[in-house]
Amino acid sequence: MRPQRFHRLKEVLGRRQPELTVLMERVHKAHNFSAILRNCDAVGVLEAHVVPPETGFDVYHATSAGTRKWIRVRRHDTVGQAVSHLKARGFTIVAAHLAGGARDYRAVDYTRPTAVMMGSELHGVSPEGVALADELVVIPMRGMVHSLNVSVAAALLLYEASRQREAAGLYDAPRLSEEEFRRTLFEWAYPTLARRLAAEGLQYPELGPDGELPPELS
Questions:
Q1: Averaged pLDDT for residues 96-123
Q2: pLDDT tens digit string along 52-82?
Q3: What single string gives the DSSP state of each residue in 136-170?
Q4: What are the φ and ψ backbone dihedral angles of 213, each rounded to 5 degrees?
Q5: Across residues 34-39, what is the average pLDDT?
Q6: Any idea of the CA torsion for 18, 19, 20, 25, to the nearest 10 degrees?
Q7: How many Å apart are CA 141 and CA 86, to the nearest integer?
Q8: Are 121 and 192 contained in the same domain?
Q9: 57: domain CATH number?
Q10: Which pLDDT value is given to residue 56?
Q11: d(CA 217, CA 45)
């Protein structure tokens, strides 16, 4: 581990936003799934959530290798299960949905713990997802088409969330607990070793100031 690489990892992790996430409900095209995760990484999302399509979906193979190193993906069987999990953690569910009563996506407060829910490419968020959402938002369209590609729409919502969070100073200091920061940094820096230690039930060791492993593991 080069010191420059280690300090870059620390810098990026220090801007991760554990109170901002995405819930993908039945997004079934691998390129859209992967693009949304790239959007998540770009704005500092720590963990994304997915309800796979009913036809099945290999989350691991649908995620580009470069992205899955940095974004945790939590799988849920149903949208109800996913929303219950997120609400129990204090998240407000904001669903992108073309419907009367939906607010402009820029009018929502994303500085609170927020989960942006995106639906399938063809049908959008399901009726159950709409009923479970706390807020419905829409992206204004000025042309003939009614909606954007799901990954583009997700990018707009996430970058609005990022803009608000930056203005509120939420990127200025780490948002993770000291323990979660230390654990995640080790997994980013030494993923293979982290998997081995976890499989053996061993704790991660303390790293040196430049990411050095202790002598017994180096």
A1: 93
A2: 987 765 555 555 556 778 999 999 999 999 9
A3: EEE----SS-S---HHHHHHHHHHHHHHHHHHTTT
A4: -80, 155
A5: 94
A6: 90
A7: 30
A8: no
A9: 3.40.1280.10
A10: 62
A11: 31
C-alpha–C-alpha distance, residues 116 and 151, integer Å: 12
Query: Does 43 share its domain with 73?
Result: yes
Contacts of 143 (CB under 8 A, 6+ apart): none
H/E element, 184: helix 178-189
Determine the pLDDT at residue 1. Answer: 85
Q: Does 112 share its domain with 201? A: no
- 127 and 56 within one domain: yes
In a domain, 3, yes or no: no
Percent of the chain at pLDDT > 70 equals 95
Q: Residue 134 belongs to what domain range?
A: 20-167
Tell me how far apart the alpha carbons of residues 204 and 200 are, in angstroms, rounded to a whole number.
Answer: 11
Phi, psi of 15 (to 5 degrees): -105, 0
DSSP state of 207: P
Please indicate, yes or no, whether residues 101 and 186 belong to a single structural domain of this protein.
Answer: no
Domain count along the chain: 2
In the structure encoding, which two tokens stand for residue 48, read together? 């994304």
The answer to the question of residue 4 being in a domain is no
